[in-house]
Design brief:
Number of strands: 13
Structural class: alpha+beta
CATH class of the largest domain: Alpha Beta
Order of helices and strands: HEHEEHEEEEEHEEEEE
Helix content: 25-40%
Oligomer: single chain
Number of helices: 4
Strand order of the largest sheet: 4-7-8-9-10-11
CATH superfamily of the largest domain: tt1808, chain A
CATH architecture of the largest domain: Alpha-Beta Complex
């Protein structure tokens, strides 16, 4: 019997529910399997494992929204206006790097790298900047597996925002590995690369009110 596309999607979704619900948050698989799952499955393919992204906490969601808003307003626009611009900044977009699949919390491409807004799934053009909001259940993946993969892929800048510790770690690519160029905490006002053209109040990521 030939299945409709809707029936195929439901079967993939059911397979996801069975496969992922019986394991903590990862299982062996392939890139093709990960890409065949529904977009709302929120999975990545890292180190030969299909990894389910953690359900975001309130703190995680706030930090993600606040940072994407702060940077997006100033930078996710064309250059040459009132604000620095020059970037595409997107939230929860599937990105393929080599044979692995990632869904970073926030991703940025310089417009000189990608002149037009990215389309489709996954985006195969290497980002110029990635930020992960650290979750307790996925901290090892963010701090080890993803850091290694992003470095190997040549992602120039990698940020880690930790809502529990209320910290921002800014890292720059080097031949030997990522080098921490800024470590900031709630209460600090910084100009973190590659967005040093504008100030960022770190506390805004953790509940402080932004400037009017």
């Amino acid at each position: 019997m030939r299945l409709t596309e809707g029936q195929r999607r439901r079967r993939r979704s059911a397979a996801y529910d069975v496969g992922m619900s019986t394991l903590p948050h990862a299982r062996p698989g392939t890139l093709a399997e990960a890409l065949a799952l529904p977009e709302d499955a929120r999975v990545e393919f890292v180190g030969g494992q299909i990894v389910q992204k953690a359900a975001p906490s309130a703190e995680h969601g706030h930090a993600q929204r606040a940072l994407s808003t702060e940077l997006g307003f100033r930078f996710s626009r064309r250059s040459g206006g009132r604000f620095p611009g020059g970037w595409w900044i997107l939230v929860e977009v599937d990105v393929q790097l080599g044979g692995e699949l990632f869904r970073p919390d926030i991703t940025g491409w310089r417009r000189e790298t990608m002149p037009a807004l990215p389309k489709g799934r996954p985006v195969a053009t290497r980002p110029d900047w990635i930020c992960e909001i650290v979750s307790a259940s996925n901290a090892r993946i963010d701090r080890v597996e993803k850091m290694r993969a992003y470095h190997q892929a040549g992602v120039a800048h990698y940020w880690l925002v930790d809502p529990q510790e209320e910290t921002l770690i800014v890292q720059r690519h080097s031949a030997a590995g990522y080098v921490t160029v800024l470590a900031a905490a709630r209460g600090d006002t910084v100009r973190p690369e590659p967005f040093e053209a504008a100030e960022l109040k770190v506390g805004v990521l953790f509940g402080d009110e932004p400037d009017e």
